Amino acid sequence: EDQVTQSPEALRLQEGESSSLNCSYTVSGLRGLFWYRQDPGKGPEFLFTLYSAGEEKEKERLKATLTKKESFLHITAPKPEDSATYLCAVRSSGSARQLTFGSGTQLTVLP
Amino acid sequence: DGGITQSPKYLFRKEGQNVTLSCEQNLNHDAMYWYRQDPGQGLRLIYYSQIVNDFQKGDIAEGYSVSREKKESFPLTVTSAQKNPTAFYLCASSKSRGGEITEAFFGQGTRLTVV
Description:
The complex is a heterodimer of chains A (about 110) and B (about 120). Chain A has about 110 residues and is mostly beta strands. Chain A has no helices and eleven strands. In chain A, strands 2, 4, 5, 9, 10 and 11 form a six-stranded mixed beta sheet that branches. In chain A, strands 1-3-8-7-6 form a five-stranded antiparallel beta sheet, with no helix packed on it. The model of chain A has no long low-confidence stretch (mean pLDDT about 95). Chain B has about 120 residues and is an all-beta fold. Helices cover about 0% and strands about 55% of the residues of chain B. In chain B, the strands form two sheets. In chain B, strands 2, 4, 5, 6, 9, 10 and 11 form a seven-stranded mixed beta sheet that branches. Chain B has a four-stranded antiparallel beta sheet with strand order 1-3-8-7, with no helix packed on it. The model of chain B has no long low-confidence stretch (mean pLDDT about 90).
C-alpha cells in the first residue's frame, strides 16, 4: 500500500524567511510525484510533477526536488500570498490509475 | 475556459436523504475522480472512472454511488447509508496515457453538511 507523509503539519514563517516542506513516500515503483497548493474552501491547484530522482522544477518562489525516498518543496523569500496548504501526492506502478495524497502542510507567511 | 465545474458549492442534507453532487469537465479528459476531504486529513478516494460506463471503488466507497454515462460528467450520490457524510467533496479529472494517469486537475469543491 502506498503511503505519503508530509511534514511539518503546520509552518509559520516571516515574510522573506525561506524554508522547505517535506514529503516522504513509500510506494511500489514511483510513477510520478505531484505537488498541489490548496487555499481554504477551494480545490487543489496543480503546481508540479516530478518523475525521477534528481529532477527539479521551479515556479516563481517555489522549487520542488525529488530523491528516491522524499520530495522537498523549497520556498524562497515567501510572501503572505504564499500562505496555503501544500499537498503532495504519488502515483505508483501498483496504483497507476489513481493518486495517493498526504495530509498536507499548512503554511502561514506573516507580513 | 476549460475546467472542472462542481455544483452546488454548498449542500445541506437531512438525515436519511440521498443527495447528488454534480461534476462536469470540458478538458476532454478520460479519467475522473471523487475525493473526500475532512479537516486535517488528506484527500481520500471515493470512486474513479477511466472510461465511460466503467468505474471502480476507491478506499472509502461505502455509502456512495456514481455513474459515468458521458465522458464529461461524473455525478456522485451520497446515500443515506453513508453514516458521516459531512465533508468537503472534490472532483478531479486527468488525461490517461497507456493506462497511467497524468496530473489531476480539481474542481472548486462541494461542502456537504448534514442538518
